[in-house]
Amino acid sequence: MANDHDTVAYDVEDGIAWLRFNRPDKRNAMSPTLNRAMTAALDELEFRDDVSVLVLTGEGQAWTAGMDLKEYFRETEAHGLKGVRKAQSESYGWWRRLRWYQKPTIAMVNGWCFGGGYGPLYACDLAFAAEEAKFGLSEINWGILPGGGATKVAVELMPMRKAMYHAMTGEMIDGATAAQWGLVNEALPLDQLKARVTEVANVLAAKNPVALKATKDAVRRVGLMAYDEAEDYLVRAQEAANSFDNEGRKEGIRQFIDEKSYKPGLGAYDK
Ligand code: ACO
């Protein structure tokens, strides 16, 4: 099934929602229109029973060339602070939605990824890039600091010296370097990217979805906690997950202990 918001498009196939930045002529730069369309698409897909995993990718040569310098910056600034704040809340808003999305998410970075693009890149749980893709904090090249969370993303994902060099020089790195520096999980030749992402999406789709949502949230949350706080949070998160999924984990135990039909160390139980 397909849907089209013009600047954003998606298809749902075999449990995977393939959501695309869809302004290839503008290298998928994020305009206010695109940001609103992304919010709408995320709303439409989040609780669909036929969607197990969401993949965010780009049409054409780009994943996204970052914020649209004309429509996101120049045109909104013409409306003063009110215009700027509205545009910020629309873009930051859908990245935040994506960071805490109900379904597992994968960034499939097919090409250019600049500046503001680091927001949705970080928001996705996993990220796979084409070796040919190019990543850059180009803000310094046109005279601003990497705002909108981009500096935070660099510092969260990369060692400090790499983050500092990346932010201060504005030099691009390719997909393979992005994988070495921790921006993405893996880099592969572009013609193998979709097959690998499909493979990983299918691994995630086979897991207990309640446990998966609790797990991805826990990984993002515990980083800022001391050990005791994290331990307490994780106990309570598991108890909350149990209230949504009383039978799943019991079935997981049953198939291993009683039925001996799988081994949790080697793969997922049969949902
Ligand atoms: N904002 C607005 N328009 C853009 C953007 C952008 N970020 N990126 C590309 N476009 C537009 C171009 O203006 C051009 O429009 P036109 O056809 O009407 O002239 C069209 O997209 C194609 O762009 P080209 O530059 O011709 O494409 P090319 O393939 O040669 O280069 C590249 C691609 C390297 C991505 C280049 O477009 C570029 O440097 N874009 C800006 C990247 C950037 O610095 N983004 C901002 C990051 S900072 C932030 O997000 C806060």
What does this structure look like?
By secondary structure, the protein is α/β, with parallel strands linked by helices. The chain is built from 12 helices and 11 strands. The strands form 2 sheets. Strands 1-2-3-4-6-8-11 form a 7-stranded mixed sheet, with helices on both faces. The chain has a 4-stranded mixed sheet with strand order 5-7-9-10. β1 and β2 form a beta hairpin. It is globular. The two termini are about 25 Å apart. The model has no long low-confidence stretch (mean pLDDT about 95). The structure holds acetyl coenzyme *A (ACO). The site of acetyl coenzyme *A (ACO) has 17 residues, from α2 and β7.
Quick overview:
This protein is α/β, with parallel strands linked by helices and 271 residues long.
